[in-house]
Amino acid sequence: MTTSHNTDLIVIDGVSHTFDTNSGQLQVLDKLTLGVPENGFSAIVGPSGCGKSTVTRLVAGLLKPDEGTVWLQGKQVTS
Asked: What domains appear along the chain, each with residue ranges and CATH number?
């Protein structure tokens, strides 16, 4: 997938994130790449535990990805 930092409101580029749990590590995102256009409509859907809230928290800057970058309105949120 090709994303553009100039035309997309949100760009998620190669993002991975893992949580530590009592039973070990749980990888919820594995090299996710996603572009959300500025004047478009997008939805993140899926079953419980698939990473929807994690993506939202990464875009808000509340979490840092283990790898990859998140951009919001052309500015890097996390690296």
From this structure: 8-78 (3.40.50.300)
